[in-house]
Design a protein that fits this description.
It is a single chain. The chain is mainly α. It is built from eight helices and no strands. Helix content is 61%, strand content 0%.
Length: 142
């Protein structure tokens, strides 16, 4: 399993968005702090399929998806962050999960007010709670 296989998987599963999500772009470009970005980018490995489509618990080898460790090693190598002191820490994953939880809580709040754009907006409140719990797990695992 390699980055080309993951790119192919993303193209197959996500279609047009995959070009923007190529690993080479993810490893070379960030929108915020690089470690916050890479933690957010790896949340799928830490969430279940029922938690907004995570891949935790799936047979990654069978899907041709690298493990989180392999993905992070690729990222750190490409980003020039080989020194472990420059790697993401539990705080970064907790921050990423809490950020995501707040986004979903906001969507659920808009659903309650009747101003949400999505038809399934009311359902994401449950996901917000699950993501907040994952954030606490990240801190407690430290």
């Amino acid at each position: 399993m390699n980055t080309e296989q993951l790119d192919a998987f993303l193209r197959r599963e996500i279609g047009g968005l995959a070009g923007a999500m190529r690993l080479e772009k993810i490893a070379g470009e960030t929108l915020g702090h690089p470690l916050a970005d890479v933690a957010f980018n790896t949340l799928a490995w830490r969430t279940l399929p029922s938690e907004y489509g995570g891949i935790r618990g799936l047979d990654l080898d069978a899907l041709g998806i690298p493990s989180e460790c392999e993905y992070l090693a690729y990222y750190y190598r490409r980003a020039g962050r080989m020194d472990p002191s420059r790697h993401a820490a539990p705080f970064h994953w907790a921050f990423a999960f809490m950020r995501w939880a707040v986004i979903f809580a906001g969507i659920a709040a808009r659903a309650r007010r009747g101003t949400a754009a999505s038809g399934n907006a009311a359902e994401v409140g449950v996901i917000a709670v699950a993501l907040a719990r994952r954030g606490l797990e990240a801190i407690e695992a430290a």
